[in-house]
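Posting for a labmate who doesn't have an account.
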Amino acid sequence: MKDVLDELAAARRTMGRGSLPAGDAYTIEVRRQYEASIDEVWDAVTNPERLRRWLRPVTGDLRLGGRYEFDGGEHGEILGCEPPRRLKVSWLYGPEADAWPGTSEVEVRLAPGPGDATEFELVHAAIVTEPLFPTYGPGSGGVGWDLALLALARLLTGDETADHHAVQESPEGREFIRRSAAAWGEAHRAAGGEPEHVAAAVEATTKFYAPDPS
């Protein structure tokens, strides 16, 4: 359990506002350091064979301007690619004509850290409507990214069986989810969220990702 919670504590989480072509957006940002070279981290976030181990299987034209699709239904276009420092994609859900939540983009930024480490930053900007933000707050996407980045950390330490879905279903995964939801609640509060709204959002997010097994 300690290594799982250490990974949770390794990240810094913030919530803010940004803009997308379709209008104003909420942003969730995760920053942390990985004890791996920038080329190694870049390969892990762009190589389909490694992506499938910590995120999901992906198909498509994986070049700048190409379109991709994950087996969970997320899909979009590769908007920016500057190896080994920056990757930006549109991130949509469901049939393209009915894209939910309307407009969403994910950007990963990498920079060399001390020694052989890499500074990692993920920014997810989305225009969200009911019931997502009002009900779940930033944890609606933040907990999912925390789970995925835990699996990425394991992959980068040589665990080729890393899988955030398996983690999510384990007892330690449930505790990770509970603490992740609380951490995103703190980010929400720091961004000006009303305490009652934050508390309700944390509870709803926890129940969504880790429903009562009974």
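Reply:
Got it, the structure tokens are right above this. The chain has one domain: 2-209.
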